[in-house]
Queue: 4 jobs
Job 1
Amino acid sequence: MTTQTSPAPGRVTFPLVATALQTLALFFQAVTAGMLLSSSHGYALHDAGSKVLYGASMLYVLAAILAWRPGGGSPRPILYASGFLVLATVQVVLGIAHLPSLHVPLGTLMFALSTLLLSQAISARFRTRAGSRP
């Protein structure tokens, strides 16, 4: 028999932190992509950011697995996290291949999806918090 557990209201969870880190890394990548157009430092920053983003995507997968396993909840977040890791891999390949016509729109899509995921996680946290008041 498994019981479903949920985090205490008001607590910051590992998946929320991982999602926020991934979203921030994607935003940093967008900024450094713009810097590529005007600065010689843009490439080095964008390259370093790509490694951070890839690590953040892996961290998100780990967070989704660790959040799912003890509580016995839905494995759907693992699918989302794995999808982001696949998209990050495709982004790296497209960046190395110097295909900006595919690399830039995919990066924009990833930022939009990650921002949506983060906003849903934050709003769910507030709904949980509001629902727990006497």
Job 2
Amino acid sequence: MVEEPSPEAVSQFVERFAGALANAGVPTMAARVMGAMMVSPNGTMTAAELADMLKISQPAVSGAVRQLLQVSFISRERLRGSRKDHYRIREDVFAAMLERRNLALTEWEAASRSGAALFADDSPVCRRLTEAADFFAFIHADMDQIIKNWRAENPR
């Protein structure tokens, strides 16, 4: 049986996880809140608990939570008998996030194709924009299949 990790080890993990997300473009405070939510035993925390765990201010938590609500990483709920908002990490959260990100590829493809249509087929600009559109379509199709495969192997 594995022993419970120390608070220091958990904190180090949260910061390492947040750093990896921040390096990929996730805002730092939102990444730290994501890390904290990932290690929450029941997947739910209040703003006060997040602020205490991460040693950050309530306004910092508020901004991070707002960002995470917008991308559907977490949901807000009220537990019976509580006046406080509780934030719950979504089930299937990373597949759902990639699914949303994947939708952007469709927009990038369409924008690239509309740009390519402005130029002669043999122009360098048309070739470059067509290549970009083809790439976005290719990645979109593969990512869509990857998400379907993940969900088939890991039903909720």
Job 3
Amino acid sequence: MFDRLEIRVLPPGPRFAAQVRFWVNGEDIVEEAVDGGGRGPYAADVLPAGRPSPLRAIGEARRLELGEPECTGGCCGFLTVIVQRCGEIVQWSDWEVPWAAHTPTPYPPPELHFDAGQYDTEVVRAEADRWWRVYS
């Protein structure tokens, strides 16, 4: 059984521009890994206008930054994952999670496997949904 991805853009707030959150199987994976107060990547960075999103899965593995804690990634590290297409499967693996004072040993999310068709459809949908640009 495959995992299911949903990409959501949160409106800008007083501290941050519009940011992206990744819901996997109904769970906000950024919030689970970086706790409340953390943030996902800026929408303008992962859903850029005029070029493909770095979220697109290709055959070559690459590390993507998906979030950071409230204290910033420069302090405690970033939530990152290796994204790679393996035929009709998109794999997220080799997580790195932020180090937080309240968590002596960070617990990474599990390896995730998405149906490539569903994954591609969701990334294309998120790229096309530009509502958040009016706030940027």
Job 4
Amino acid sequence: MSERPTTSWRKGIAREAEQLATGTLDPGCACMADLYPEELLTATDTVLDSFDAEVAELDSTEDVQVFAVVERVVLALNAVDDIHCGYETGEREALRAYIDQALSEHGVDVTALTARHGLGRYELTDKWRDW
């Protein structure tokens, strides 16, 4: 199963905290905890928990169903971003990639799905995405 972006972000925070504790990082250079406050991480994980549960129950052959799940997760992530202003370019790409990978791991051929609907491979979330 693919790693959630929030897991990677938490690892970065922990790594930075360790470097601060050992004195190998100048406190002025520390930014991970500010970039990824716990409220943002928790809210993002809550959205991804729901998404993962929906994907597990998904009929991968039903385009309408797949798009509905994608729409719900993207709109929920939009709401998190509106509240926390936390998704910059790297985070956006990590979230998009996670959605894509989670669907692929559950049998959705994302390339074929997007092609059937006149979309490019990486445009799956674009219709709803504000982040």
